[in-house]
Design brief:
The chain has 22 helices and 15 strands. With 671 residues, it is an alpha/beta fold. The termini are far apart.
Length: 671
């Protein structure tokens, strides 16, 4: 039969906000793909038959009608999205990858039956975490062709999740998780919670800022917050996160020193998990619950100090870099295996497609470990009994679409190759560049997952600057000890310099491959594919390569300065800053159309802050070498061939600022 822009619907079930939203999405999809025509309206029947089962659907296509029967609301949603993907050709990341549509008067849908797929995990979802780019972007602040509403970025993230077969979400971090909770529920998704927010409750320290956040002192106040959260969400579909961590993303004993042994900490966590579960049972029969064995909690569990109910889902977590071992905490990195030892019970995973740890993580670039590595880790986890739950830190979505697509395939989503969908005319070549990306990443440690995200360069550069300005050259910079061990700052900088020189050839080759291909595609690609290539692979190659070049320059400047060669150090710092200005220009270049301003709030990696930090080092070096009068370097550049220039007046114009002086000296070609 033909699907045209004119379509009527016959509801064979009771409508609600979830089904209304699904229907409006379908009408919007048709409007993007189909033009008005004189064809007679086609008809769609939608009904609920619970006997089909959770999330299941059956689509029957007749000459004059399409009938959808589904086991529940999510089944209806998936059925409509199946039609959208299969016959309207709308891809899961259509919004994020700027898919262009060419309207037709109708599309053909062959007669027959279509059935829902099988997925390997019961709950499949995203955690919209560290969402600083989404949070600051798209709130009617830019005059573009298509203004975004306040919540559209979050809605489009959750729509992409649904299109990938996901059914569960943490709809943001902290305030955003509460702000977008109802939107997530109205989209038919299951809700779950951040591991630091048991039951999705408000943080104690936010509600009672004047009080010490101690459960021992104020148990009733904690109970009240938990009960409030249950009552607020009891009518939603929720996988209830139960547990007890602390105020913010850290353990509670960081604020309450009375819990000074593993036994005390484990005992409190165990008792509060039971308390929260009992509270849930006051409101509902057999609540679905999970608890996060994450970071320090996982270590307590492995040591036998935490007692958990058997009917809850145990959530294991990767270390942030895709490896199923405990995460590094500062310099503490025991790498305890984070997988169930036996398949009995219910198990799930919290996995990172994006990560933030103030060390070597990746937030505006992809996970630096390969899709093959990720598939191996997740496949092994499922073989070890993880069948219930997988939630993926998707962060701000756009920088991570390739990896999010790969993970959805692992949980069972069937679809064409990513590059065939988004680079149909250059699929093989672009896929090859994606795979080269993973092999080009800097390896900073002995483990297979010790590959650097872009935060490695920026946090280590800022750490070097901190130690340098503090003048403690023979002492370790504490924020680098996790990486280099407890050696002096001089030795730490030497370590970083050697690592940069070791990594630069591979990363330089990858950058040049992307550059050459980008030049080729400028002529061959249509505008959409070229723009997507620039905004994804090319941008991330620039971020990695130029940031590493900047780090190498900083290390060289450090040693020039130690040798008393301040002018040389000053110029090398200037080159480091130029590399990072190139990065910010590339990020601005990727912020066009509806994406205007997308990278403005890059506050977690914060390339601009690294530039600012280097500016301070530049000023410090000039102060050492150019002295208090600040005209000597400029004068020598003006008179390079004179050993003792005649100075009747020191300068005829205002002193140059540091960056102006750098450009003047660079352009004089005398330095």
């Amino acid at each position: 039969m033909k699907i045209t822009a004119q379509m009527s619907v016959d509801w064979k079930c009771e409508k609600n906000s979830v089904l209304e939203r699904a229907w409006k999405r379908w009408l919007r999809d048709m409007a993007m793909v189909l033009e008005p025509s004189g064809e007679a309206p086609c008809r769609l029947e939608i009904g609920i038959k619970k006997e089909l089962g959770t999330e299941k659907y059956q689509i029957q296509v007749y000459p004059d009608c399409i009938k959808i029967n589904a086991g529940d609301e999510l089944g209806v949603i998936y059925a409509l999205l199946f039609l959208s993907e299969r016959f309207l050709a709308i891809t899961p990341f259509w919004f994020w990858n700027d898919q262009q549509f060419h309207k037709a008067p109708y599309v053909e849908v062959p007669e027959g039956e279509y059935h829902s797929p099988e997925y390997s995990l019961r709950f499949r979802g995203w955690f919209i975490n560290d969402e600083v780019l989404l949070d600051a972007w798209g709130v009617d602040q830019y005059d573009t062709e298509r203004d975004l509403t306040e919540n559209e970025a979050f809605e489009m993230a959750m729509e992409a999740l649904l299109r990938l077969g996901g059914n569960m979400v943490i709809p943001g971090t902290d305030h955003n998780s509460h702000k977008y909770k109802k939107l997530a529920a109205d989209m038919g998704l299951w809700l779950t919670h951040h591991h630091a927010e048991p039951l999705g409750a408000k943080m104690f320290a936010r509600v009672h800022p004047e009080m010490t956040p101690s459960y021992k002192q104020y148990p009733e106040l904690f109970h009240a917050l938990w009960r409030e959260a249950i009552e607020e969400q009891k009518d939603y579909k929720v996988v209830w996160n139960i547990g007890f961590r602390g105020q913010g993303d850290r353990p509670f004993w960081a604020d309450d020193k009375t819990y000074d042994t593993p036994q005390k900490r484990g005992a409190l966590i165990s008792s509060l998990i039971k308390k929260q579960y009992d509270m849930l049972c006051e409101y509902m029969e057999e609540p679905i619950c999970c608890t996060n064995l994450y970071g320090e909690v996982m270590e307590l569990y492995q040591q036998g100090y935490i007692d958990l109910p058997e009917n809850i889902i145990y959530i294991w977590a990767d270390n942030g870099y895709g490896k199923m071992v405990s995460r590094r905490q500062g310099s503490h990195n025991p790498r305890v295996e984070a997988l169930p030892s036996k398949p009995q019970g219910k198990h799930g995973i919290y996995y990172h497609a994006s990560f933030y740890d103030l060390q070597a993580a990746f937030h505006i670039t992809m996970l630096p470990n390969s899709t093959e590595f990720v598939e191996q880790e997740l496949t092994e986890a499922m073989e070890r009994g993880v069948r219930e739950f997988l939630i993926v830190n998707c962060s701000n979505v756009k920088p991570h679409t390739y990896m999010l697509d790969a993970i959805a395939r692992i949980w069972g989503k069937k679809m064409p190759c990513y590059t065939k969908m988004y680079f149909p005319h250059h699929s093989d070549a672009v896929e090859e560049l994606y795979q080269k990306y993973f092999h080009a990443m800097l390896s900073y440690g002995p483990n297979e997952d010790d590959h650097a995200g872009e935060q490695y360069y920026h946090y280590t550069m800022r750490a070097v600057c901190h130690g340098w300005l503090a003048g403690k050259l023979e002492e370790p910079e504490e924020s680098l000890v996790w990486l280099t061990g407890r050696i002096s700052l001089r030795e730490q900088v030497e370590w970083l310099k050697n690592k940069a020189e070791e990594a630069l050839p591979n990363l330089s080759d990858y950058y040049n491959d992307c550059m050459l291909y980008w030049k080729k595609l400028t002529e061959e690609m249509d505008g959409v594919e070229k723009s997507l290539f620039e905004d994804s692979l090319w941008l991330q190659a620039v971020i990695h390569y130029k940031s590493l070049c900047a780090e190498k320059n900083l290390c060289e400047a450090f040693f020039y300065c130690m040798e008393g060669k301040q002018q040389e150090a000053f110029m090398v710092i200037g080159r480091a800053m130029e590399e990072l200005y190139y990065v910010t220009e590339a990020m601005d270049g990727a912020s066009h159309g509806k994406w205007t301003g997308f990278y403005d709030n890059d506050c977690l990696t914060d390339v601009k802050f690294t530039i600012y930090t280097l500016e301070r080092i530049m000023g410090y070096i000039r102060n050492l070498g150019d002295g208090p009068n600040g005209y000597g370097w400029a004068l020598r550049c003006e008179n390079p061939d004179t050993t003792h220039p005649v100075v009747l007046i020191t300068n005829m114009r205002n002193h140059k600022k540091d960056w102006e002086l750098y450009l003047f000296m660079k352009n004089s070609k005398k330095v």
